[in-house]
């Protein structure tokens, strides 16, 4: 996978994720200031998606146009951050900003080596995100005992339906499920050693995010995390291919 192909794919996927996020803030009950922030984001994301789709289909779209749209999205995001007093949606919003900054750098930096470093940094952060999530969990005695998952299913506001809460009554199942998640996250960096294992690892990670979206309503994590997958596929090919 070439840098241009991976970068264009990430931009298109990120634009679709931003469109979804923006539409969530244009509901009838949204505040005026909220609309003024997310209407431009929606328009810029639609334009970026069109430019990226054109580039993938070989249409003669000026490459600089994508860079201009990305810089505009960064400026827009800088206005959104203080409005919500920082990344308002936790890890998903932080990942959104990380991807946006990295792909903007990969487009806008003048030197080819710096562009590769910006996009490669995104792939590295994706790799570490899974490992660090597993490390934090395995260091927590509640995760090791299975109590953390029982509390999530039993008491948190996350489960998407009341029927999901019944899983809290199966402590042995949740104990092994918790350890399966921790084991996968901790060994995920090993998937980087070959292209086939990386594809398998990313497929499993996508299924994990999909399960979280279905069970807990964490749909943003699914869409934004997979936007970074082209960067790690490119990085693996660049370093070990």
What keywords describe this structure?
241 residues; single chain; 11 helices; 77% helix; mainly alpha
Q: Helical region count?
A: 11
Helicity range of the residues? over 70%
Q: What's the mean pLDDT score? A: 88
Give the uncertain stretches in residue-range form: none
Quaternary organisation: single chain
- Number of β-strand runs: 0
Alpha-carbon distance between the two ends: 10 Å
The tally of domains stands at 1
- Envelope shape: globular
Written as H for each helix and E for each strand, in order along the chain, the element string is: HHHHHHHHHHH
Q: What is the rounded Rg?
A: 19 Å
Q: Largest sheet, described in full?
A: none
Fraction of residues in β-strands: under 5%
The assigned structural class equals mainly alpha
Topology, element by element:
Layout: H1 3-24, H2 32-56, H3 63-83, H4 91-108, H5 112-138, H6 141-145, H7 147-155, H8 171-187, H9 195-216, H10 219-226, H11 229-240
Helix pairs in contact: 1-2, 1-4, 1-10, 1-11, 2-3, 3-4, 4-5, 4-10, 5-8, 5-11, 7-8, 9-10, 9-11
Account of the 3D structure:
It is a single chain. The longest helix has 27 residues. The protein is globular. It has one domain. Helix 9 packs antiparallel against helix 11. It has 241 residues and is an all-alpha fold. The model has no long low-confidence stretch (mean pLDDT 88). The chain is built from eleven helices and no strands. The protein is 77% helix and 0% strand.
